[in-house]
Each structure stands twice: as structure tokens, then as C-alpha cells.
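Data deposition worksheet. Section B asks for the primary sequence of the deposited chain exactly as it was used as input, without tags or linkers unless they were present during the calculation. Section C holds the resulting structure in C-alpha cell form. Section D is free text for depositor observations; keep each observation to a single sentence. Incomplete worksheets are returned to the depositor.
Section A, Depositor: J.P.
Section B:
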Amino acid sequence: MKWLNWYGLLFVAVILVPNIVFAATNADGFVNKFSNKKLEVLEQIGRFSCFLFMFISIPGLCRGWLFDGAKSFYLIVGAILVGLYVLGWIAFWNESSVRKALALSILPSLLFLESGILTRNYPLVVGSVIFAPCHIAISYMNAVL
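Section C:
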């Protein structure tokens, strides 16, 4: 694999768009009601690791496609997960609920994990394993509090 994964960069850019629009139009939309510093720090480490390693492939730590046809599978599953994420934002835009929190935390977690596995990008796998449970837990707790 090359150092730069343009598809991963596109996936990250697309999932950031609704977050940026929501933050710009809802000043109090990302109120953090749940406070657990350790979980929050781990989530941020995982989040930025995932964002970075979605499009940066470090030689030696990224072994290339998992199987023949993995690139096609990666693009199809990635596009579906990104599409569902954007549709989730549209469907749940004005809603504050557990289902919104879970949908919008599980979908990117799956995207990062499947991308890391299919590209054998080990830093991305590690980042997603850190990010997913922390992000899902924080999102869930913020929704129920």
C-alpha cells in the first residue's frame, strides 16, 4: 500500500461534514453530560488515531489488502457505512435519543474497524479498538443522562 489512502481520506471527510454542520448550527448540541476523564482521554486518543490512520498507511505497520477482492469489499462496505452514518444524521437531526447516540457512534466505529482489518492497517485497528467502546459508552451515557 502507499502512504496515503485517498479513499480513507474521503470517508473521514464525509463523516466529518454533518458533525461540523451540526456544531455550527447547534451551539449547545454537543453538551457532555457524562464525565469520566479516563474514558474521554482514551476516546480522543482513539478518535484522532482513527482519523489519521484512515488515510495514512505507515509502511511495515500496514500490510496491504487482507484478501483478493478486499479493496472492492472495503469500498462497498465503507461507502455503505458512511452513507448510513450521513442518513442517521439526517434522520435524527433534531432528536436527542439513545438510538441516535448508538447509531452515530456504532457506525463510525464499524467503519474504522473494518477499514483497519481489510487494509491490515494495524495502527488503525488498535485505534478503533480503543475508540469504539469508549465512544459508544460516552455517547450512550450522554443520551441517558
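Section D:
The chain has a mean pLDDT of 95.
Residues 6-27+34-144 form one domain.
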